[in-house]
TrEMBL record:
Segments forming domain ATP-grasp: 116-310
Organism: Faecalicatena faecalis
PROSITE patterns in the cross-refs: ATP_GRASP
SMART domains (UniProt xref): GARS_A (SM01209)
Protein name: ATP-grasp domain-containing protein
Keyword Hydrolase on entry: no
InterPro entries associated with the record: ATP-dep_AA_Ligase, ATP-grasp, CPAse_ATP-bd
Pfam families xrefs: CPSase_L_D2 (PF02786)
Keyword set, alphabetical order: ATP-binding, Ligase, Nucleotide-binding
Length: 434
């Protein structure tokens, strides 16, 4: 238990299932946790485990500021949702509490149009795009080479994204994406068919650390929607080349916009052995890679984010000597997807947690929740994440097989909702291509 944090009051904005990870970690550190959102307690998993909760919307800045003042809150933290970041920054500004980023910085990194322009300025590879004008559709799309990816400039979680193979599909997808964009700005990008990787960064008082680079394994297990991630493996064999060619450019970019603290992920496509950025999140990540970093390297970015919220400092001591993106063994994150249906039970949790190499098994959708048709093709289909380490590839192969043997997601009709997951052959194929 951390004596500096013990007894302090932390306000968590939003009580979604993933936010329970923040709440439990803060409570382990002796922090008194308060959760607020507009949901009733039965619809807010975070409220059910918090020390105290309130029915105040996270986007009602005036009401949250009043709550902070009345309850003598020591710090505020926001979880895994881009949309809440500007509200979080404004709440912190008005209450004088630490915010790891500014409203202006968040505005850049939640807007795909803005951060792509920033990447180009600093020679950080990013996806090419086409200018499409609905009012002049035929002419503006005449030079497009398909397939293309259509997506809102200011959305996340794979909402509003469509792969298009023709002009007719493009027109329909453009209108669909508009429904998910508050700004009305739609991006039409060249659709890269390469493999994927994700780069993870940690920031401490103006110092920038590349903490991990993992292969992001995608699987197309459903018709009519984009492929979704079924796992990560660390470290990626593209890491050394990324450090040689791109790392310093990214640091210059971050310095230009004045980044000081926090964490960030950059999702990339791989083309010609180059990481091409297509998505950025300046926030905690749903992939929960910080659990692997804590196990392999001995530091926990989630704990550091909680500490910053309550003290204004990411850590007490320099973390640089612990950071090693090359790791000393494999790390993995298996993401189990569920097809539409109401969840009755997730089987195998006890057995998973008894496996020595498993760090944690984290439920994203619990019994009684429903995977709806509207969630199909979105990251919201991820129902369970299992994280762990392996000493070598053979051990990794055996672990994946053992873990997948235990996991089953049953519907209220006793149907197996589990979609095909990561297979060892997928990992070998991705490594070989990279």
């Amino acid at each position: 238990m951390d004596n500096i944090l013990k007894g302090k009051k932390l306000l968590v904005l939003g009580g979604a299932q993933l936010s329970c990870e923040i709440i439990k970690k803060a409570q382990e550190l002796g922090v008194y946790v308060v959760v607020t959102d507009y949901n009733e307690i039965e619809d807010s998993p975070g409220k059910r485990i918090a020390d105290q909760s309130f029915m105040v919307s996270t986007t009602d800045v005036d009401a949250v500021v009043k709550l902070i003042e009345e309850e003598n809150i020591d710090g505020v933290i926001v979880g895994f949702v881009d949309m809440l970041l500007p509200y979080y920054a404004e709440i912190c500004r008005r209450t004088g509490l630490p915010s790891y980023g500014t409203k202006e910085q968040f505005d850049i990194f939640i807007n795909k149009d803005k951060y792509k322009a920033l990447c180009r300025k600093f020679h950080v590879p990013t996806v090419d795009e086409y200018a499409v004008d609905l009012e002049n559709f035929e002419e503006s799309t005449s030079e497009i080479k398909y397939p293309v990816l259509v997506k809102p400039a200011d959305s996340s979680g794979a909402r509003g994204i469509t792969i298009c193979y023709s002009k007719e599909e493009l027109r329909e997808a453009y209108q669909k994406a508009s429904q998910f964009s508050s700004s009305g700005k739609i991006l039409v990008e060249r659709y890269l068919l390469g493999k994927e990787a994700t780069v993870f960064w940690l920031f401490d008082d103006g110092k920038y650390y590349l903490t991990a680079l993992g292969n992001r394994h995608m699987k197309n297990s459903q018709e009519g929607v984009i492929p979704l991630p079924v796992g990560y493996t660390f470290p990626s064999n593209i890491l050394s080349k990324y450090q040689k060619d791109i790392e310093e450019n990214v640091k210059q970019m971050l310095s230009f916009v004045g980044i000081k603290n926090g964490m960030m992920f950059m999702q990339c496509k791989i083309e010609n052995d180059e990481c091409i950025v297509y998505d950025i999140g300046y926030r905690l990540t749903g992939s929960l890679e910080y659990k692997i970093l804590q196990k392999v390297c001995g530091y926990d970015p989630l704990e550091m984010m909680i500490r910053f919220a309550l003290t204004g400092k990411m850590c007490e001591q320099d973390v640089a000597n612990k950071i090693n993106p090359h790791f000393n063994r494999y790390g993995f994150n298996l993401s189990f997807l569920a097809k539409p249906g109401k969840i009755k039970k997730i089987l195998g949790m006890k057995e998973l947690l008894e496996i020595p190499q498993v760090i944690d098994a984290v439920i994203a959708h619990d019994a009684g929740e429903e995977i709806t048709e509207e969630m199909k093709g979105l990251l919201a289909q991820i129902t369970l994440r299992v994280l762990g380490t392996a000493d070598n590839l053979e051990s990794l192969k055996n672990l994946i097989e053992l873990i997948e043997k235990h996991v089953n997601i049953l519907s209220d009709q006793d149907e197996n909702l589990l979609l095909p997951g990561l297979e060892f052959e997928d990992i070998l194929k991705d490594i070989e291509i990279l």
